[in-house]
Specification:
alpha+beta; 3 helices; 3 strands; 45% helix
């Protein structure tokens, strides 16, 4: 019989459709919808999936953002604006940089994945 994992330990299971091992960890709650946010990694072996799970948990414990495979350039610039730029320069300079990004970068590169 399998043992239960404690809260925050994540989970590792084998996907039946393709046989990959999937490791999942809870990273927080969506402030808008209130739903749980989970990040998953996959691997061909259970050991490798567990290593990836532990690496992801270490990043969360260290306060680093978990890598997102679907992160777009637009999302990255918006995160940079909200978390860093507004604290480094005056508000008018930050707004000017954001306007330039919206006008010139988002139309051509905004939907590209990082």
């Amino acid at each position: 019989m399998a043992t239960r994992r404690a809260n925050g330990e994540g989970s590792v299971h084998r996907r039946a459709s393709d046989g990959l091992w999937i490791a999942t960890v809870h990273v927080g709650w969506d402030p808008v919808t209130g739903k749980r946010i989970r990040k998953t990694v996959s691997s061909k072996s259970r050991v490798e999936a567990t290593k990836k799970l532990r690496a992801m948990q270490r990043q969360i414990e260290d306060g680093l953002p978990v890598p997102d495979a679907t992160l777009t350039i637009e999302q990255l610039i918006e995160r940079w604006y909200a978390e860093g730029l507004t604290h480094q320069v005056t508000l008018s300079a930050a707004d000017n940089s954001r306007h330039i990004a919206k006008r010139h970068i988002y139309p051509t590169l905004g939907k590209k994945r990082v």
